Inverse folding.
């Protein structure tokens, strides 16, 4: 069964769904390929927005697939995977149309990096979310830390990253990370959120999105992300990180 679906919806947007609910929608190489495909397809002239979500309501995304990525031991091996995903998230961030992370369930680690790379984040009330990488003796490694510093005030971003705790959607709305909350009918709520934007000419949406892309280009966000990836790759090969992953894997055997 495929790890994702991509649907072009009547209202003029593309819906990307990670379909690995049995693994809490963890990101493996196939999901990465799917994201690349969705981002490429989102450049078609009749697409005005991209929505990313997860299958079922357990999780939006549980980050990198530890059952695959535990095989990466050295910094070089880690760098290869981290930089691939960082490039994908940078193309998502700079996609010239509005993008939404429709957070239907738990979102942790790299899942938060995926969410922060979208322009808007709508979350189901009560779900838990966190940049938990710090508890695993690594940092964000897909560029999400650098992107978070662009989107939230410094003290808030720093606290979320350095504490590495889980928070409720309501707390994260207060912090400015979540833009809207919903209880049910996620897709309908998201369509209503995007309604006015979907009515506009593509060129208007693209021109506005360019204002942010230009700012990110000027403040060298892509270079800062590269540094973040390299630093995370270094931490990846530490015993502390490998011990965390081994413990996670053992609990599930
Ligand atoms: C690697 C990139 C790095 C980055 O740069 O950011 C990261 O993403 S680091 C973060 C990696 N992610 C995690 O550490 C999350 C680990 N998962 C969990 O903490 C929990 O599973 C959950 C997400 C809080 C959900 O809890 P719950 O609903 O209770 O489900 P289970 O724990 O029972 O899991 C069900 C099922 O899914 C498998 N699973 C969950 N997350 C992952 C994952 N990230 N990779 C691989 N597999 C995952 C889990 O093993 C269970 O499988 P079975 O035991 O086969 O049923």
């Amino acid at each position: 069964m495929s790890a994702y679906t991509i649907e072009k919806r009547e209202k003029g947007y593309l819906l990307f769904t990670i379909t690995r609910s049995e693994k809490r929608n963890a990101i493996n190489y196939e999901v990465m390929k799917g994201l690349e495909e969705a981002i490429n397809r989102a450049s078609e002239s009749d697409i005005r927005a991209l929505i990313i979500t997860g299958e079922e309501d357990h999780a939006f995304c549980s980050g990198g697939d530890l059952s695959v990525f535990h095989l990466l031991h050295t910094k070089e091996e880690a760098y290869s995977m981290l930089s691939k995903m960082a490039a994908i998230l940078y193309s998502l961030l700079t996609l010239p149309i509005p993008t939404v992370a429709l957070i239907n369930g738990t979102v942790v680690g790299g899942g938060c990096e995926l969410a922060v790379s979208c322009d808007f984040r709508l979350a189901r009330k009560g779900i838990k979310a966190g940049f938990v990488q710090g508890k695993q003796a690594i940092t964000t490694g897909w560029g999400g830390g650098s992107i978070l510093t662009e989107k939230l005030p410094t003290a808030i971003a720093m606290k979320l990253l350095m504490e590495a705790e889980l928070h409720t959607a309501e707390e994260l709305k207060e912090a400015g990370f979540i833009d809207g909350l919903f209880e049910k009918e996620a897709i309908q709520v998201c369509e209503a959120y995007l309604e006015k934007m979907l009515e506009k000419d593509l060129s208007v949406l693209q021109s506005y999105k360019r204002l942010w892309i230009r700012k990110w280009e000027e403040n060298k966000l892509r270079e800062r992300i590269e540094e973040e990836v390299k630093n995370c790759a270094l931490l990846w090969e530490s015993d502390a990180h490998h011990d965390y992953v081994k413990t996670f894997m053992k609990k599930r055997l």
In short: The chain has eleven helices and ten strands. The pocket of LP2KCY5N is lined by residues 23-24, 26, 58-59, 62-67, 69, 106, 108-110, 113, 133, 136, 140-142, 252 (CB under 6 Å). Strands lie at 4-8, 13-18, 49-54, 59-61, 99-103, 106-108, 120-124, 128-130, 167-168, 180-182.
